[in-house]
Amino acid sequence: MRVIExxxxxxEAEALVVGERPTPEPGPGQVRIRVRAAGxxxxxxxQRKGLYPPPEGASDILGLEVAGEIEAVGADVTRWxxxxxxCALLGGGGYADHAVVDARHVLPVPxxxxxxxxxxxxETAFTVFTNVFEDGRLTxxxxxxxxxxxSGIGVMAxxxxxxxxxxxxxxxxxxDKARASRDLGADVSIDASDGRFLEAVQxxxxxxxxxxxxxxxxxxxNLKALKPxxxxxxxxxxxxxxxxxxxxxxxRSRLTLTGSTLRAxxxxxxxRLAEAVEATLWPWVADGRIKPIVDRVFPLEEAAAAHxxxxxxxxxxxxxxxx
Length: 323
Ligand SMILES: NC(=O)c1ccc[n+]([C@@H]2O[C@H](COP(=O)([O-])OP(=O)(O)OC[C@H]3O[C@@H](n4cnc5c(N)ncnc54)[C@H](OP(=O)(O)O)[C@@H]3O)[C@@H](O)[C@H]2O)c1
Fold this sequence. Notes:
It holds the Pfam family ADH_zinc_N_2. InterPro entries: ADH-like_N, ER, GroES-like_sf, NAD(P)-bd_dom_sf, Quinone_OxRdtase_PIG3. By secondary structure, the protein is of the alpha/beta class. The chain has two domains: 2-121 and 263-322, Medium-chain alcohol dehydrogenases, catalytic domain (Quinone Oxidoreductase, Chain A, domain 1); 127-259, NAD(P)-binding Rossmann-like Domain (Rossmann fold, 3-Layer(aba) Sandwich), CATH 3.40.50.720. Helices cover 29% and strands 27% of the residues. The protein has eleven helices and 15 strands. The protein has helices spanning 42-48, 115-119, 122-135, 152-163, 175-183, 198-203, 219-225, 247-252, 267-280, 282-286, 303-312, and strands at residues 2-6, 16-20, 30-40, 65-73, 85-89, 98-102, 106-108, 143-146, 167-172, 188-191, 207-212, 226-234, 256-259, 294-299, 318-322. Strands 3, 4, 5, 6, 7, 14 and 15 form a seven-stranded mixed beta sheet that branches. It has a six-stranded parallel beta sheet with strand order 10-9-8-11-12-13. Strand 9, helix 5 (175-183) and strand 10 form a beta-alpha-beta unit. Helix 3 packs across helix 4 and helix 3 (122-135) packs across helix 9. NADP nicotinamide-adenine-dinucleotide phosphate (NAP) is lined by residues 41-43, 123, 127, 147-148, 150-154, 172-173, 177, 213-214, 217, 235-236, 238-239, 260-262, 310, 313.
């Protein structure tokens, strides 16, 4: 089968080249998907650069999510049959014609969606669900502050929080992006091109939950933006991982600071999340409250161009590869 390999093991986008590997066979509890589309995520870029090695046992091929048809099922798989239209969360291996995955990490393609749209969902759906609703404990009537609001994660977070009946304050860098986040449903959209958002968030009443992919540069403002009892959930630290935190504010306002990564979680934990995502977010996809936001689509062999698009930072939503 065709796969995208990283020439030399790590490098710039140009290092992504088409290679050949044997088509994998599904083991017990696994399925093989004929990949029709694969989502591109920021972690893929980190892995390409050699900064985010695949966890033990995961494929070394890039790609954390795919959509396509089931084409083979291993022993003990009862839910899926060849021909089923599915999408899936992978530990790796999505940039390929075929991908093998734990059958429990597979979800049906929501009604009305094509493979490109479905491939844009799993990584952000799982990440947003567990960080915003589980660890962040966001509930109806509360306010979510989301940074990088037009990122793949951001567009999912805005729509999911609104679907749950929460208010959303969104920051992004650029007037066009602020407009885009408003169009996606954010109640308050802040252009934080100058790195400042605190005043605007305070004017809007503060936040109960911060979904933070920025890290150090926003740390002090995040802390001050939270209402008493607020939760600050870190999913990335793109501006740096070392920050000073005023612990007295943490105590006085009874704040929670937490964070997580999805990819390294145990297979059973991802299976639990898949069930929760299907029960909670999938109905919102089906009724249109969550729409896959696809920025651009590239053929698999143009994976380098897809990475450059994401690295340009000018995208809104997801970049997707098709086979
Ligand atoms: N922990 C987890 O389990 C998990 C899972 C998936 C993804 N992630 C992380 O979540 C982030 C988003 O992923 P994605 O695939 O949606 O990526 P993406 O579409 O490429 O978006 C990255 C976003 O980060 C923002 N950003 C980057 N550096 C910034 C800075 N210094 N200050 C302010 N904003 C900055 C950009 O904001 P502007 O557009 O405003 O410039 C951009 O919207 C990535 O960092 C990724 O590694 C974490």
